[in-house]
Amino acid sequence: MQVFKNRSLFTLKSKLLKYSFSSSAGPLDNILSENPHKNAIRFENQNRIWTQQELASHSNAFAYGLVEQGYKAGDKLLLWVEKNSNAEVVAAQLGAAKAGVVLVPVYAQSQSELESLLSESQATGILYSPNSQLGEEKYSQIISQAVPELESLGNYGKELKSDRFPNLKYVVHTGFYTQPGQYKYRDTLVYASKNFNTLSLPSFDSSAPFYNNGNNSYSIQDLQSQAEQLRAEHNITENTAIFVAGDAKSTVSFALGALTSVLYGNYVVYTGKMNLEQVGKITQLYKDYALVLDGSVVGENNGAVQLNWNKSSLDALRSVAIFGDRAQDIQQLFSGVNTQVY
């Protein structure tokens, strides 16, 4: 078995701009055309469910926003967020793919590390969660210190010109409050209309780089192949619900999560900050499901881990894909179930 290493919206409406809805998103719109009103993804921590049509609408809005800002196919967008399991991130992942933009998830643990990543990646933009913290500092403070030119721009609208990061043009945050020189996520979304023909997305190339991490680069084609392999390993059918629990920093999470939803129509649930016991309670409602888990669902300490799920939840569990620091501990909890560690 090939092992894949860890890698690393929403109801608020942005301004409604009337741009053409001309996108050749290839396989990313397969299920949309077949069943637009089918539930696609649930975000437990945000109490939000998107249908296939809503998922397409929000990811397309992000894609058109990138085009309007000036991104071109092959440009890089850094993604610096504490959690990868919310609606904004999922829409950004799929939207970047539709716009031909290379998504670069980063997990900087200091300002100097973030600065190195900005410099080495030559990113055109960065999308980050401003209220996440490193020690005593919020991400927004670290960004302002790393890119001091933002302060002089005032409200967004002026082009960023950074001496240290000449490629960096756009800083976007997922928060609600104004940050000097930065765009609010919801204000970058462009909800297109079929009645107008102003913007268009590039032709979709499934073999083009899409997901970068260090020296590893993945195209949608690569991730689709990974999804197909994972579905076979875990005996997943189109009727299997997929729960993505913990911090989704792995290509396994994306391939079996959002990508599987748009490619194959599976219902995907992102459980957010729920621990393993909380996940077990909501799975009681499902008769056929699979789990994608990482170590954060059992905590970071090395204490004993117990599984107190009822029999019906375990009987309906088809398989478990596991990754992260405590993968072996989690695997031992699910004896008798098809489990794979990545």
UniProtKB/TrEMBL annotation:
Q: Which InterPro entries match?
A: AMP-dep_synth/lig_dom, ANL_N_sf
Tell me which residues make up the AMP-dependent synthetase/ligase domain: 33-135
The protein in question is named AMP-dependent synthetase/ligase domain-containing protein
Domain of life per record: Eukaryota
Organism of origin: Pseudocohnilembus persalinus (Ciliate)
